[in-house]
Amino acid sequence: MNTIDELLRTTSWFHELPPHLSEALGNEARLVAIEANGYVCRRGEPSHFWFGVVDGLVKVCNTASDGRVMTFAGLPPGAWFGEGTVLKRERWHYDATALRPSRMACVPSALFFRMLDESTAFARFLLEQVNERLGQLMATVQSDRLTEPSPRVANCLLAMFNRQLYPLGNAEIQLTQEEIGYLSGVTRQKVNAAVRQMEAQGLLSISYGRVTVTDLDGLRRFAARVS
After folding, report:
1. Which alpha helices (H) appear in 104-187, and where do they start and end?
2. Residue 78 region by backbone torsions, left for phi larger than 0, else alpha for psi between -120 and 50, else beta
3. pTM over the 0.90 mark
4. Which CATH number fits domain 146-226: 1.10.10.10, 2.40.50.140, 1.10.3720.10, 1.20.1530.10?
């Protein structure tokens, strides 16, 4: 995808908005380019926008006082995020950074609340989004406590297949092993060993810059078994 319009055309709730809201969204949402390692939002800053990933890859994370980084989510194209902070009108509690050059749809918070107030479809979407995000966070916390790299890598890949959070996902993920390492908190060498193990079991195949899952149910069983 290259534009906000393309992102919105693939977004289910957009097609159920009243015409005046869909027109406002098309007019008021801003397209912002973020360089690799650049910030989409920073911890402590006001939450003026709700974000959608037009293209690229975004990491949501926090850095502890001892320098340890905890990654909450990797966000591919089609993902929307930040609704919890915007709803509470708080400052960001985390950083969101681009792992590769990315483009973001930035929806002003005032328009976000107009859609929430005036569109039942959008309100329903947000309810489901917050519920799925809570489940993802719980899985991330559990995975972060695992010491073995294989389940952490497997759970990182499985997280990219949540159709509620990432509706544009398919069997092939444009994801390098270095990026998997950033998202799972595992070194690139251990990521390589983990994906080779899963490839040997027929769960996925790997090529340059891409991971193709060939057995999603098998990958789920693998993650549950080794964790």
Report:
1. 109-118, 120-144, 149-159, 177-184
2. left
3. no
4. 1.10.10.10
